[in-house]
Design brief:
Length: 274
């Protein structure tokens, strides 16, 4: 973890200090409040695995973390050997989580990359499992990550913090591209609210959402969301754009509902085009 941005925790782990307002927040309160500071509304990092449980509408979802993914699935993805070779540290907070489950009745693959950790082999393998499962089962793919992760994935703007090789990033980009070829929706959610546009060569999919508690997020109607989704479908076959723009800001608590509406929209559009 980066020392400047790691949130301060009491030695017994019961209290967190919010870097937005310096208030001490009881850990259980924070968990109940989706890691949003009850005093100032600041968004604290939401642990990757807990985020899966928050977004999937059913209590049961299939864990796609390398050590937990069903062996038969890994075999059919041709990834069993790679997973065996990968060191998967059993940390209390996962640096990446992935799962297969349902949001508002739509089956989907969801991956969450925890902010601030250097990208490593574990990210590569977990993302590969997620992308290939989406391709195999013809499910949409949702990726949640922060801006710092996008920058690390940008092959032309690599930082020393990235431990993922250029070849691995290129490989992931190609695999992501297969989702578009198969006309499977791909949704990116950025957990940094203050983003206008970012430059990236890593595929960010059809729709980019950003988490934010801004007034526009709270008052926006559903119409622009559907418009954005329609535009995304129409431009699927265009050349990849190197400038990614935020299509919509969504408060953290509304993210499951917003994703559910998008998935439902894409499922209906897909149903009418085939
Ligand atoms: Zn606060």
């Amino acid at each position: 973890m980066h020392p400047a941005t790691e949130h301060i925790e009491s030695p017994d782990g019961l209290w967190h200090k919010c870097e937005g307002c310096d208030e001490l927040v009881f850990r259980q309160t924070l968990e109940r409040n989706l890691y949003i500071c009850p005093s100032c509304g600041n968004y604290l990092p939401f642990p990757a695995e807990q985020r899966l449980s928050h977004i999937f509408s059913t209590g049961s979802w299939i864990d796609l973390f390398p050590t937990s993914a069903p062996p038969s699935l890994l075999e059919s993805l041709n990834l069993a050997d790679l997973v065996v070779q990968t060191d998967c540290p059993n940390l209390p907070d996962r640096i990446i989580a992935a799962g297969e489950g349902e949001i508002s009745g739509c089956s989907t693959i969801l991956t969450v990359i925890h902010p601030l950790a250097p990208l490593q082999r574990l990210h590569f393998v977990t993302l590969l499992i997620a992308i290939r499962t989406a391709l195999l089962k013809e499910f949409p793919l949702i990726c949640i990550y922060s801006n710092d992760v996008v920058l690390k994935l940008n092959a032309t703007d690599r930082t020393p913090a990235s431990e993922m090789s250029f070849a691995e990033i290129t490989y992931l980009s190609t695999e992501m591209g297969k989702l578009s070829e198969a006309r499977l929706p791909q949704i990116t959610v950025l957990t940094d609210a203050n983003v206008g546009a970012l430059s990236t060569r890593f595929p960010t999919g059809d729709i980019i959402l950003a988490e934010g508690a801004s007034a526009t997020a709270l008052t926006a109607t559903e119409q622009p969301l559907v418009d954005a989704a329609q535009t995304a479908i129409e431009s699927t076959l265009e050349a990849p754009n190197t400038d990614a723009f935020i299509d919509r800001y969504t408060p953290r608590e509304a993210l499951p509902e917003t994703l559910g509406k998008l998935l439902d929209f894409f499922a209906k559009a897909r149903g009418t085009s085939t």
